[in-house]
């Protein structure tokens, strides 16, 4: 400063990362000409987006201090495994350099750091999988131990020798890396977590730019005990991330009533299997179709067989009722149930499988709208194939069993995603099917011709899981919860062995129909179910309500994005629309039309009349010319062309697509009138 003063400058310009005075009563500089803060860098995409994670419905008071830290460390590893797989896939898909992620654990003091290290290196912590991948860096280290820690710190970005770093305060300002994706600040306050000193350690982007892959572009803080406090501080006006505020209450972003997740099933599914659906508490449950629990279990097995096997084998759902198919289905169900019946022989009631299968197939055919899954393929006999090969380089796949949902909240954008769900859902008779059911969703994979290769590769992945997981239950847990990620790893390697011979293209029915899938929605505990014919009050609350009372839909509950959608549903459900046989509001994966770069479009409605089937999209007048809406419309129109070509060949009824403005859905409107006016894409 003395040297500068001797120059007698007229003007001095300073650049600093901390425009404030030092000391306990730090004050912001009042002569700042231009300021570009961390929030600006996040918004402009120059750094990672910060997020905070916890378990769903986590209650801090249910755990002592040691239990809390154990859970936070385990969940950090679960998230870390996800990050490593996403980075591996991104590197392989783009040809860019592989990034080795690591977890930073912030301890309170050196003794605390050592206790954490001992926990991670114990056999009880994921079977000792991380005991050689963790280092401790603090002031108590000396000699060779300190030299080794420093050497491993230097290699953090270039090797995979270290995946967990524990430190107290030895890593001061100026130490930051590009491959830090997970921070575990144990015993830290919310204000300590939400600082540039904490977040700044890992905000640098590994490729110098955003990739578009959310996991790769995010720095996540595991903060089970401070989740709410961090969110609140992030919303403060002076927050470094400057998060949008949410309002709670009528008309706000968040309803004032608590909410819960419910699962909606087709009513015939519940009546056949006894599986719960919607908000039902059993008090108003209609009588079950089948008399005993064993028969209802057999009905559930029958539906699963139809979904996973017969959908791809039959050209019409009605074939389920033919004597030949019914007999094959009965034998499949009997083989599946034999181990159970043998175990409880003499105790379990004898199940009349003829009666069960007849009830299931009849109910399914009566309630189903046959929506074909259409693949557009070259017309030559052999035009695309995958060469036989062996899976390689699976060392990065080290998913561990999970039993809780981990919520990850983006601090700036207030978006939320889930790392993994509890291991619930339809059980498979063969563990490989948990992976295969995701692989066959790809339009490039034809199950009929690639089944042997798919089972071989899925089997190799399962063998890899068995190589490091202790029990078959753990293997099934990982295969179920992480099935999509495991399928992504396999498919990425399959792409290298893919061959295609261009030719004229034709439409092929991959599946002639799909059984109706259950859907999950959230419902406010204070909100009852509204009648389909009744609007929400105010109309802006439509999305928060569930609507019931339909007579032509297989589902008892529906959710609508807008009141015009509800009005359209009420119109086609009414007795006045005599031509409408049934209608459906497709859930995720029920329809699936690819409209742009692999994105799937699920239309608002599918309606079956006596003569045709309609895909109907209801949009506001302002959205009618939106580019995304038009892209979806073009994709749907293309799908309809192929579906109608198949219909001409005798596969089902003809199809049409309607893009209907909400202003057209008035009391005097009819489906025939809307079909006539909006049944063509301009």
From TrEMBL:
GO terms for cellular component: cytosol. SUPFAM superfamilies: P-loop containing nucleoside triphosphate hydrolases. This is Type III restriction enzyme. It comes from Devosia enhydra.
């Amino acid at each position: 400063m003395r040297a500068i003063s001797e120059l007698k400058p007229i003007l001095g310009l300073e650049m600093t990362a901390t425009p404030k005075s030092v000391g306990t009563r730090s004050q912001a500089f009042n002569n700042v000409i231009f300021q570009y803060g961390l929030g600006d860098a996040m918004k402009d995409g120059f750094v990672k987006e910060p997020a905070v994670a916890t378990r769903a419905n986590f209650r801090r008071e249910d755990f002592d201090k040691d239990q809390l830290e154990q859970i936070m460390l385990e969940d950090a590893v679960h998230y870390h495994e996800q990050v490593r797989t996403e980075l591996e896939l991104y590197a392989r898909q783009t040809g860019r350099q592989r990034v080795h992620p690591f977890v930073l654990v912030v301890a309170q003091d050196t003794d605390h750091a050592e206790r954490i290290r001992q926990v991670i290196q114990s056999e009880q912590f994921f079977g000792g999988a991380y005991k050689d991948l963790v280092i401790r860096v603090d002031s108590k280290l000396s000699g060779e131990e300190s030299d080794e820690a420093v050497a491993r710190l230097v290699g953090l970005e270039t090797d995979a020798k270290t995946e967990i770093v524990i430190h107290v305060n030895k890593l001061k300002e100026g130490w930051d890396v590009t491959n830090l994706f997970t921070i575990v600040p144990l015993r830290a306050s919310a204000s300590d977590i939400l600082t540039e000193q904490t977040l700044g350690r890992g905000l640098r982007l590994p490729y110098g730019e955003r990739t578009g892959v959310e996991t790769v572009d995010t720095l996540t803080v595991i903060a089970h005990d401070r989740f709410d406090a961090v969110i609140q501080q992030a919303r403060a006006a002076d927050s470094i991330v400057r998060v949008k505020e949410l309002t709670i209450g009528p008309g706000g972003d968040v309803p004032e009533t608590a909410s819960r997740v419910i699962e909606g099933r087709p009513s015939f599914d519940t009546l056949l299997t006894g599986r719960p659906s919607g908000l039902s508490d059993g008090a108003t449950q209609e009588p079950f179709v089948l008399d005993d629990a064993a028969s209802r279990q057999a009905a559930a097995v029958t539906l699963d067989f139809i979904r996973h096997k017969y959908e791809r084998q039959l050209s019409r759902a009605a074939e389920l009722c033919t004597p030949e198919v019914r007999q094959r289905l009965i034998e499949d169900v009997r083989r599946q149930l034999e181990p159970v019946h043998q175990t409880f022989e003499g105790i379990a009631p004898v199940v009349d499988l003829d009666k069960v299968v007849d009830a299931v197939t009849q109910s399914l055919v009566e309630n189903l709208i046959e929506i074909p899954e259409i693949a557009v393929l070259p017309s030559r006999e052999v035009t695309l194939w995958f060469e036989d090969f062996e899976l390689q380089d699976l060392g990065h796949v080290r998913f561990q069993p999970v039993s809780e949902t981990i919520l990850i909240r983006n601090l700036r954008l207030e978006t939320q995603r889930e790392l993994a769900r509890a291991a619930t859902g339809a059980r498979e008779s063969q563990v490989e099917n948990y992976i295969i059911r995701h692989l066959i969703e790809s339009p490039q994979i034809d199950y009929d011709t690639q089944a042997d290769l798919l089972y071989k590769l899925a089997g190799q992945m399962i063998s890899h899981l068995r190589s490091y997981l202790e029990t078959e239950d753990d293997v099934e847990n990982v295969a179920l919860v992480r099935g999509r990620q495991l399928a992504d790893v396999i498919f990425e390697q399959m792409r290298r062995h893919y061959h295609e011979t261009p030719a004229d293209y034709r439409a092929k029915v991959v599946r002639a129909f799909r059984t109706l899938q259950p859907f999950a929605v959230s419902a406010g505990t204070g909100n009852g179910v509204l009648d389909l014919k009744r609007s929400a009050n105010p109309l802006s609350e439509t999305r928060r309500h569930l609507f019931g009372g339909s007579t032509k839909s297989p589902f008892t509950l529906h959710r609508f994005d807008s009141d015009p959608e509800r009005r359209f549903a009420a119109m086609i459900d009414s007795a006045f629309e005599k031509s409408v046989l049934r209608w459906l509001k497709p859930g995720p994966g029920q329809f699936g039309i690819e409209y742009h770069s692999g994105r799937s479009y699920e239309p608002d409605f599918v309606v079956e009349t006596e003569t045709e089937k309609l895909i109907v999209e209801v949009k506001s007048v302002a959205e009618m010319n939106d580019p995304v809406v038009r892209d979806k419309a073009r994709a749907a129109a293309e799908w309809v062309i192929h579906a109608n070509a198949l219909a001409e060949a005798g596969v089902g009824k003809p199809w049409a697509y309607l893009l209907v403005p909400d202003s057209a859905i008035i009391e005097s409107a009819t489906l025939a009138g809307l079909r006539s006016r909006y049944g063509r894409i301009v």
